[in-house]
Amino acid sequence: MTRDESAAIDAFERLGLTSYEAKVFIALQQVGSGTARDVARTTDVPRSQVYSVAESLEERGLLAVQQASPIRYRPVSIEEAQTTLRNRFEREQERAFDYVEQVKRDSVEEETQEDIWTVRGRERVDDRVVDLVSNADDRILFGTRLPDLVTPALGEALENRAAEGVAITVVSRDEGVRDKLGSLEGVTAKRPPTHREGDKRSGRILIVDDDGILLSVVDDSGGETAIWSAGSLFASVLIQLIEASDEIR
Amino acid sequence: MTRDESAAIDAFERLGLTSYEAKVFIALQQVGSGTARDVARTTDVPRSQVYSVAESLEERGLLAVQQASPIRYRPVSIEEAQTTLRNRFEREQERAFDYVEQVKRDSVEEETQEDIWTVRGRERVDDRVVDLVSNADDRILFGTRLPDLVTPALGEALENRAAEGVAITVVSRDEGVRDKLGSLEGVTAKRPPTHREGDKRSGRILIVDDDGILLSVVDDSGGETAIWSAGSLFASVLIQLIEASDEIR
DNA sequence: ATGCTGTTGTTATGATCCTACAAACGCGCT
DNA sequence: AGCGCGTTTGTAGGATCATAACAACAGCAT
């Protein structure tokens, strides 16, 4: 069992297959088609188990069963397997969220709660940044010294807002960041006036209108953690404090 | 626990969450945000379990944790949760199939094996039909008495083939089927010459070039099962037998 | 301070379920 | 009988579910 193979099996497991199912499917893709014995030979799945495993794979639409003696199995094409799995995923997701949308509380007033939230992980922070940006009505201020933190999704969101007349300022001491975002229609890119030499931990800063703020830091191992708040007194006070300093402006 | 709710929980489980995780996520969407106790109140998840469950949900990016006392939890928006899950799915699928593609045997000769395969389930049959159609070079003959078995994907596939100069004939005694497919560019729709009154079981028939055939039946409970073969002597013989009769033509 | 009460967050402990894995069995064939 | 095929049964291990116990702490009356 190679390193790659067990990684692939793990991935299949996260897609909802059991490890036997993953192994049988992979084995069948290797040998093209074959009997239970053929499959058992190329994997460490016991032959007696192949039958039931193949049956459940058939129900999932990942292989075809030939009624013969001995029974032969044949995998569907890779493309077909992918679309089958994807369709299944979309169907389940729809079912799951349909209900959630039904029962979701209309959280109207809740926006003004005095809450500061923590988000861990680069992608999570990405999502939150885009979400905040997308709700901007008046102005957006975004800053980071790390080009990696400027994602395509952020660019799109900023462009959309700019098209709606939202004033957008990007602040960075990194030329790449300024070029990438400054080239967008309606986006102004600046250098921060001061330069703190020892700054190796700050990640990004985002200010939206006068009531939304996000601030992230990057720890030693590269993990990003952000705090954010929107529509709270906290947020507006923090914004005032930050903008009173001349770090960004 | 309503019927809908447990269905939604099942769907979340198939997406890879545990039932506790699903319950906590749903509960948080209902209440907006809250403490472990709030969550435990609106579900049957024991409060002591909420903490660890919420932690794993945070790792999945489905909720945010507020560092306070007591700890407060807040779900991400439904849209964000969906894209997070979808991204995860796509990533895993890519990982899984990358490996499969690496090791997939170049099954060259294998096409000409003498095999007849069985496919169970409407969607599976749909997929196979589209796959066979897409590989047609010369001509396609498709027939069914059931309008439901004419899917959009089939229509597209036929249109594509027609554009490549493949001769396409659709045979049905159902006017709706003839209209739907006959209206496509390059598709000829016909009525079958004979009419067997007692035919309540046949599903669809597909003949591709002179070497691919698929035949499906519908059982009492509406389930569809198909047999098919391509590139085999079986297939060509069957095609000759069928076309010798005047049932379709 | 002291003691009481209720809550919070953590941890431990069975019960239960599913998968992984192994072995045996019935059957048809030669 | 001997052999391969397909089915069935049994067991060990792990994850999840469900409940309980625990220390730490805040509020409040003595």
TrEMBL record, chains A, B:
Domain of life: Archaea
Domain (Transcription regulator TrmB N-terminal) ranges: 14-79
InterPro entries per UniProt: TrmB-like, Tscrpt_reg_TrmB_N, WH-like_DNA-bd_sf, WH_DNA-bd_sf
Listed name of the protein: TrmB family transcriptional regulator
Species annotation: Natrialba chahannaoensis JCM 10990
Lineage of producing organism: Archaea, Methanobacteriati, Methanobacteriota, Stenosarchaea group, Halobacteria
